[in-house]
Amino acid sequence: MNWFTGIVLFVMIWWTALFAVLPIGTKPVVQADDKSGWRGAPERPRILRKVIITTIVTCVLWTASYLLIQSDFVSFRHGYFADQDD
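-> structure tokens emitted (86 positions)
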């Protein structure tokens, strides 16, 4: 895996992990808006905390992905997944 592929993989994992982490610990606003009745965004979204957690989760998942890709455990060049001419 070259550096560009590694960065693209990191960004893809980060965005996916962000949407998995965002709803954790959020509580809706207790008092709804008087005009619309809409509760809207949570009272305390704690975005910085969620970005940090997302980055840590992404680092772990990216490292596992990197090790799996470099190990040739799953390979399309040889082995079970390779294009075989029978």
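The chain has a mean pLDDT of 85.
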